[in-house]
Amino acid sequence: MKEVEPSQGHGRSVALLFPLSLMLFEFAAYLTNDMIQPGIIDVVREFNADVSLAPASISIYMAGGMVLQWLLGPLSDRIGRRPVLLSGTLLFILSCVATLFTSNMEQYLLTRFIQGTSMCFIATVGYVAVQEAFGEKDAIKMMALITSITLIAPIIGPLAGAAFIQIAHWKGMFALIAILALVALLGLWRTMPETVMRQGTSFSFGGIADDFKQVFRNRCFLAGALTISCAYIPLMAWVAISPVILIDNGGLTSSQYAWTQVPIFVAVILGNLTVVKLVGDNPSDRILWAGAPIQLTGLCLAVLGNLLAPHIWLWSVAGISTYAFGTGMIFPILFRRTLFSSSSPKGTVSATLNIIVLSSIALSIEVGRLVYQYGNKMLFHALGLAAGALSLMFLMRFLQALKVNGSTQPLAPLLEDIQE
């Protein structure tokens, strides 16, 4: 796809307001997970459902994040990023409004599934547009900043959610989130650039299948995608299952639970900000090799702590927080390098990447739920350590493949003059 140069005078709004609007949309999408987590036990009880379904609120959301990947990436390659992302933002708003009218657990999970499709639009379309609009170092910095700011949601979300359910019904959260997403939609409509041109490529299932086959045959890309997948499994499994561990079985209140999540997501933000500081002066490979051992150290701490003192939840939080810092360091770089490790259309590449990542996370949440249900916290964290070890193994193969094959370079970015 050929990229479009923005008109003069539009560059500043693209550089600032487009990423800001995308960040606001992602922030709203995160809040649908993080604000409801302190009250998810209340949701389950209100609908007279089994408490073991509590983690399904996130795993179903993740499943929604996979269902449209195959379509949105190739579609945005053919008709452009802008109309696809705007449509996805509107769908998210409508799904939040629909939550207000749910009357049973099945309906609630259905709205969660639809809300999860927002991740298709954000990661497959929005992130790609950012990567196409900026050069490599600026794109890494921009992605790190976007991730840092949107990760405020997992910090304030549980706290705000815990406070909200003390004064109002939990459904009101989704009304507030819908309003926030509406502001994001207006911002995207005004400022989002179109980074690809329509070139008359026909939309056919055969053409889509051929594009995906080309990406899946790229071993270098697969190694990068599996690195990201395994790197995120411990964090997402903890987010999904920690309410059962700490509230239902651990006896913490919703407010106490919310505070246990703060250091974890602060650590991810600090990791992202470390990338912003280091990426200008250091090769990205060096940053990756610095972050991976920090991940494994944190996961080992969680396992050993729960082996020696399983009744102390502090070991879990300390270990996951340390691991989260390392994850924050590697993700912005890994995403960029994996996306451009294939020469295929970037919407399709991003869709393939997210299918692999989200399916791995959704599966791991269900496996983690069963491991904890029939085992204990130590076994649950051991599963995370195994994922971390696999991530390091795939990282080694990915970097080796990049050296052998050469990293596929992106087309000239739209914004060459972004201010540092």
From TrEMBL:
Signal peptide: none annotated. The keyword Transmembrane helix applies. The keyword Membrane applies. Pfam families: MFS_1. InterPro entries: MFS, MFS_dom, MFS_trans_sf, Sugar_transporter_CS. It is a multi-pass membrane protein. It is found in: Endomembrane system. This is MFS transporter. It comes from Serratia aquatilis.
